[in-house]
Amino acid sequence: MDEKENFGFSESFLAESSCADFSVGRVASQSKGLYRVITERGEVTAEVSGKFRFAVKRLADYPAVGDFVLVDRDGDDGGHAIIHRLLPRKSAFIRKAAGTAEEEQVVAANVDTVFICVSLNSDCNLRRIERYLSVAWSSGALPVIVLTKSDLCDDLPEKLAQIERVAIGVDIVVTSSQTDDGWQAVRAYLDWGRTVAFIGSSGVGKSTLINRLIGRDLLATGEIRAGDGRGRHTTTRRELIALPEGGVVIDTPGMRELGLDSADLARTFADIDDLAARCRFRDCTHDGEPGCAVEEAIRDGLLEPERLASYRKLKKEARYEGLNSRQIEAEKITAMFGPLGGIKNARRLAKEKNRRRHGY
User: Does residue 29 contact residue 250 with C-beta atoms inside 8 Å?
Assistant: First the structure.
């Protein structure tokens, strides 16, 4: 296979995307309205056309790193290339845009596999893993959990058992940066023409792993702070990087800000949904109702109460994602007074109860 096929330009894809007037390109990076686009002939600097810009309804409709686009030229001669069309995405990671309440921004597109990196030290947080899994499943990419810095973990079997209980149906690989082959388990998921992304908290070792896959120190790395187990961001922009043994990787900064507006909680918490299907009442809230299979599983030690609490928290957060303060307040009122038929009916019932109490 040649390099263009490694970036996803398969013959079948090129045939589907063929257009006499345009060339197919893939966005490798973006900065201040300009895009670096990889084409069959090489790289071009591109910008969206005026017609494209006029037709855009939301920020997420603009090209993102990993997107396939149609451009008017495949060489850098004659000025900037013009992006005329964005081709359909098979997967997309979305977060709220900085400085906005509702605008969504695509962080990475057309990812086949997303590696959720978790450091096997104090950063190993099961609730954070559940959040990342929910976002990963909703993106359309296949999640794989990558446990980094295994040399710092004294109780690896116990940590693995804990993570397996929340990572249902997800592969888990263990890596270490202390040995030459400590990262080879990740290599097995890469192949010619496949695109992967690494997400996770700062300092967990994403850039170190990518450097190992590239074969040189292309990305800056930073250690986790000893005091709080947190790290600092070392990647400053999203970029599509070709790997020498096949495959491409998208390095993605700031993924901790990924929202839950489109999170797939059903796949992340499949165990709770399966239990809920056996509850006596279809609308069971798992909070004291008779015949609740979820609470029974907790009493029997088959389900951890912290996992149910995490499910409720993420579900509530997803409900409020993208709403302004007035809309959030309205949602809270609806949830509070919904069982009573709404706030107006609740007020009427309260007045009637007050009258009966005072005998008039």
Answer: no
Q: Which residues contact 349 (CB under 8 A, 6 or more apart)?
A: 340
Find out whether 91 and 172 touch, Cβ atoms under 8 Å. no
337 Rama sector, left if φ>0, alpha if ψ -120 to 50, beta otherwise: alpha
**What is the architecture of the domain spanning 3-88?**
Beta Barrel (2.40)
CA dihedral 197, 200, 201, 204 (to 10 degrees): -90
Backbone φ/ψ region at 153: left (φ over 0), alpha (ψ -120 to 50), beta: beta
Which tokens is 42 given? 């090489």
pLDDT, tens digit, 9 for 90 and up, residues 29-52:
988 889 999 988 888 999 999 999
State pLDDT tens for residues 165-195: 899 889 999 887 666 666 788 888 888 889 9
Could you give the residue range(s) of every CATH 1.10.40.50 domain in the chain? 265-358
Query: Buried b vs exposed e over 152-165: b needs ≥16 C-beta within 10 Å?
Result: ebeeeeebbeebee
- Tell me where in the chain the CATH 2.40.50.140 domain(s) lie: 3-88
What tokens does 32 get? Answer: 């201040």
Smallest CA-to-CA distance from 213 within 247, 262, 173, 256 is with 247
CATH architecture of 265-358: Orthogonal Bundle (1.10)
Rounded distance between C-alpha atoms, residue 86 and residue 52, angstroms: 9
Tokens of 224: 């986790």
Nearest to 195 by CA among 92, 96, 87: 92
Amino acid symbol at 355: R
- Phi and psi for 308 in degrees, rounded to 5? -65, -40
Fold classification of 107-257 (topology level): Rossmann fold (3.40.50)
